[in-house]
Amino acid sequence: MPDQIPTADGPYAGSWSALALRLAARGLVNPRLAVDLIRTAWAFRQRGWWRTAPFLPVPDRTYLRWRMYTAYASEDAVPPIEDVINFARWRRETMGL
Description:
mainly alpha; 56% helix; 4 helices
């Protein structure tokens, strides 16, 4: 069976807002995970976010697309929820947060 290359329509397709809602729900159930996810989101924020609309600490779109391309071979990929959770936990354990 050949390897499947992820595309926007493939296994990593989805909505960023749906991912955020699912992560928020998981964070409500598990406060330790909520802290990990908030710290990870804060680390990904765009520098100088307060200078441009919408004045929210969201990731830089170009950086986020590059991260998705390097991880999933598609700039339009949306990571699976378990990948985000595993990364947030790995980050805490590795960085001692």
